[in-house]
Design a protein that fits this description.
2 domains, Nuclear Transport Factor 2, Chain: A, 305 residues
Length: 305
């Protein structure tokens, strides 16, 4: 399939770049957290691929993964100042699929390779890693490359790559809370939460939120958001209750898969206002990541309608 930004003479579907595109996009998106940045990296990689003597390559996959990894590292370094100046908390741009009648409405973005960790919570933790740490960690822990391949892709020794992965793994482990919860349990809990939020039942909302739960909002300086995470069931429940009191039925919720996990889309007066990802221990909600920056919602709204 020809990508919209590729020239008309793009390679046919049997071309290795086309075959590997979901994996390459998955890598670039996990590195950068923004769909447009990941697409730019892939476009640059495709242009380099189109000029490459592919017959001379021992492995097209190794070449392409190396190019996308290095381009992503360069892009992440270039974005460092922009990310540091970002207003409030930075969360990744969500990849969303709608659920209707038990079926998924697959968006173009869901072509990202969803095997492996992709959650908003996980990508939020990855922001603590440097570009090379992030690349080494993803290549090893998510895409299961061996250290010899990672060393070739990063231009480092195997020993240096092992150290990068070890250090990154420790930092990720310290910063994240992970629960193995069946998707059906996650969905049922969110269904109850959605009903409570839609009806403004503050007590019911509060009962579904864990004692140490946090809500992190990303407004990007474009819409109001909290400078610090909201902590605890009372404060988080109050937020949803206050919205109901102010807007009533003008605020509506819709179930969706957000980065491969059950989440909610909130609409205000028919317009997408936020994409909310949830972490649960199976009984209560322990974290909410609410992406409200309009720039990060535009792709979702235009694709889903």
């Amino acid at each position: 399939m020809t990508h919209p930004t590729e020239p008309a003479f793009a390679a046919p579907t049997t071309d290795p770049f086309t075959t590997l595109r979901p994996r390459l996009f998955g890598l670039a998106y996990r590195m950068l957290g923004v769909r447009a940045d990941a697409e730019d990296v892939l476009q640059d990689a495709w242009l380099r691929w189109s000029r490459q003597d592919t017959a001379a390559l021992q492995s097209a996959e190794a070449w392409l993964v190396t190019v996308v990894t290095r381009l992503s590292i360069d892009r992440l370094r270039a974005l460092k100042a922009e990310r540091e100046a970002y207003v409030g908390w930075w969360l990744p741009e969500p990849l969303v699929e709608l659920q209707a009648g038990g079926q998924h409405h697959h968006t173009p973005e869901s072509a990202a390779e969803l095997a492996g960790e992709l959650s908003v919570a996980f990508l939020y933790v990855l922001e603590r890693l440097g570009p090379e740490e992030r690349a080494a960690f993803l290549l090893r822990q998510v895409f299961d490359y061996d250290y010899a391949d990672i060393a070739a892709q990063l231009g480092k020794t195997e020993a240096a790559c092992r150290q990068l992965v070890h250090r990154a793994s420790e930092r990720v482990q310290q910063a994240r809370t992970r629960f193995e919860v069946p998707r059906t349990v996650h969905q049922q809990l969110l269904q109850r939460f959605m009903q409570a939020a839609h009806s403004g039942d503050r007590n019911a909302i509060e009962a579904l939120i864990g004692e140490d739960a946090q809500l992190i909002g990303d407004g990007g300086g474009k819409v109001p958001s909290f400078p610090k995470p909201l902590v605890g069931p009372f404060r988080i429940a109050n937020l949803y209750w206050a919205l109901f009191r102010r807007l009533g039925p003008q605020a509506a919720y819709r179930m969706a898969l957000i980065n491969g996990e059950p989440g909610l889309l909130r609409y205000v007066e028919g317009q997408l206002e936020s994409a909310q990802a949830f972490v649960t221990d199976g009984e209560r909600i322990v974290a909410i990541y609410a992406v409200r920056n309009p720039d990060k919602l535009t792709g979702i709204a235009s694709t889903l309608g």
